[in-house]
């Protein structure tokens, strides 16, 4: 079992713009209204780079910036794990459509943003971070995979870890295979050490699968089911409601058991 601390949280989804707002929804102090997300602006990325960045990169940077600010840490001192269902499917669709055209033309900016680690690169360049960074794609278990990768990095790195997991709405016809229905993302600052900003102490273990009976607000279940990054809401709900444990589903026969302790 590995013990760590969550020192910062960032989140973005339709009707949720940050962790304080998310917490009021999870504790049922506020009714969830899934409003459409429009402009996403990360102040940490220069305006020139924002104009060239994909929406996926902006989502990742937006939630990462929230988490960094809450944890009161220096962004350039963090190692990082970036994760998504399958990369930027909106750009993948545009590239495939262009290639299928009678007169194919690939936009240099779209090609630049099509690489899987574009969000990580965008963040690292903007913050001048030179520490270890990893980019993953874990299908429906992308958040869980990022959490486990972050734990592994904590064991080998001296730095705190930025975990950023994000999704963008899947265009047709790709949505027949993957139905991500929203632009959304979550970020955590994970550390081996507690601080004045620590939100929760978390102990993780990988166990064989058993029956899972997590209780989350029914209004959020469609968001969680359709978007890999929003699997994080299961853990965030346990944090918000001061539960002592929660289980995250993972792969066919495994699950991640999370023990929570207030700090």
Distance between the termini: 18 Å
Domains counted in the coordinates: how many?
A: 1
Low-pLDDT windows of residues: none
Beta strands, count = 8
- Helix/strand structural class: alpha+beta
Give, in order, the helices and strands: EHHHEHHHEHEEEHHEE
Helix content: 25-40%
Strand arrangement across the biggest beta sheet: 3-2-4-5-1-6-8-7
* Content of β-strand: 15-25%
Main β-sheet description: 8 strands, mixed
- Round the mean pLDDT to the nearest integer and report it: 90
Q: In CATH, what is the homologous superfamily? A: Thiolase/Chalcone synthase
Q: Tell me, what is the CATH class?
A: Alpha Beta
Going by CATH, the architecture would be 3-Layer(aba) Sandwich
CATH fold-type name:
Peroxisomal Thiolase, Chain A, domain 1
Number of helices: 9
The gross shape turns out to be: globular
Q: Cα-atom Rg, whole angstroms?
A: 18 Å
Structure description:
The chain has a single domain, classed as Peroxisomal Thiolase, Chain A, domain 1. The model has no long low-confidence stretch (mean pLDDT 90). The longest helix is centred in the first third of the chain and has 17 residues, at 55-71. The protein is an alpha+beta fold. Helix 3 crosses helix 6 and helix 4 packs across helix 5 (108-114). Strands 3-2-4-5-1-6-8-7 form an eight-stranded mixed beta sheet. Helices cover 34% and strands 23% of the residues.
């Amino acid at each position: 079992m590995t013990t760590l601390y969550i020192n910062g949280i960032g989140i973005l989804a339709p009707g949720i713009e940050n962790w304080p707002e998310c917490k009021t929804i999870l504790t049922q102090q506020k009714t969830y209204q899934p409003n459409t997300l429009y402009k996403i602006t990360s102040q940490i990325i220069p305006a020139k780079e924002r104009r060239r960045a994909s929406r996926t990169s902006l989502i990742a940077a937006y939630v990462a910036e929230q988490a960094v600010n809450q944890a009161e840490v220096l962004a350039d001192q963090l190692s990082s794990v970036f994760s998504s269902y399958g990369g930027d499917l909106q750009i993948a669709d545009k590239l495939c459509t262009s290639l299928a055209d009678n007169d194919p033309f690939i936009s240099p900016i779209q090609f630049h943003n099509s690489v899987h680690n574009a969000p990580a690169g965008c963040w690292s360049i903007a913050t001048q971070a030179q520490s270890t960074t990893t980019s993953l794609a874990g299908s429906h278990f992308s958040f869980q995979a990022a959490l486990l990768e972050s734990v592994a990095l904590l064991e080998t790195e001296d730095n705190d870890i930025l975990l950023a997991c994000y999704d963008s709405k899947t265009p047709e016809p790709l949505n027949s295979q993957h139905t991500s229905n929203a632009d959304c993302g979550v970020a955590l600052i994970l550390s081996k050490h507690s601080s004045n900003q620590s939100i929760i102490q978390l102990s993780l273990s990988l166990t064989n699968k058993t029956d899972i009976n997590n209780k989350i607000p029914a209004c959020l279940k469609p968001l969680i089911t359709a978007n890999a990054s929003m699997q994080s809401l299961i853990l965030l709900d346990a944090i918000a409601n001061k539960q002592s444990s929660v289980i995250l589903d993972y792969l066919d026969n495994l699950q991640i058991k999370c023990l929570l302790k207030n700090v």
